[in-house]
Amino acid sequence: MDLKGKKILITGGHGFLGRHLVEVLLQRGVVREDLSLPAFPETDLRRWEDCAAAVRGRDVIIHLAAKVGGIGFNMERPGEFFYDNLVMGAHLMEAARQAGVRKFVGIGTICSYPKFTPTPFKEDDLWNGYPEETNAPYGLAKKMLLVQADAYRRQYGMNAITLFPVNMYGPGDSFDPARSHVIPALIKKVADAKRDGSDHIVVWGTGKATREFLYVKDGALAIAMAAESYDKPEPMNVGSGREISIRDLVGLICKLMDFNGKVEWDASKPDGQPRRMLDISRIRREIGFEARTDFETGLKKTIDWYYKTEKSGDQTGTP
Length: 319
Known about the structure:
alpha/beta, 319 residues, 10 helices, six-stranded parallel sheet
């Protein structure tokens, strides 16, 4: 599908990933007037009538909107994470079906994979166990997008695809300690320690868990490419193909930020899923996507953006 000239709805279009996706689409020839970027609370996707209004007259839906956060936030609000994400996805896809939308692009999460999945995670492993407990409500709610997409494709012939990305990072991320994921949380922790003259930082867990990260501009490109050229029912992983331990990640961030203090590990706090890294052979084969940004380069750009916006006091602007 050539997206140029198509009326495109992006839920979450004003968020971290959404702003980068808008930029990528504009670079690929989509005009801003064809983009609809509804914002909460004026458009609340938990309400059916808001979903029905949002999809009206649209050709393509890219559903990024989600209630997200780190381990602590997931543990504090499991009911909200399950209900809000489930209802938003279910309402939006049904409204899109009723409105005759030509393509629906659903964005899942690596949290949907079973807790103990052979690494790298293959798409065929998605149903081989229960997700890691701290974020299972979120992961399962997002995985229902895949179930709904498959059901709607079989019954109604709807062109609905589902992508499963790893955690993304980069300029524009949330550094709110209550909601942030691991990379922005660590950057802020180190920056605060340097500002306060502290000789140590405290990090959750043991540091043994591993994660895979994708620079947000690369993730946005993958979504745009899939919207253009992937139409199959099988889910597709979106990642960088690189795994790093949290201990090594902390060491790298401390090095890049020139912090020589001690790292104390709070083993009373959960590590989350033991290992995370995706098999990305399908996305390479199907649409030719490869991550373009070296991890250390991406971290430097994220750190620079954080310092720049922290100084200005405005972390809400366009990255």
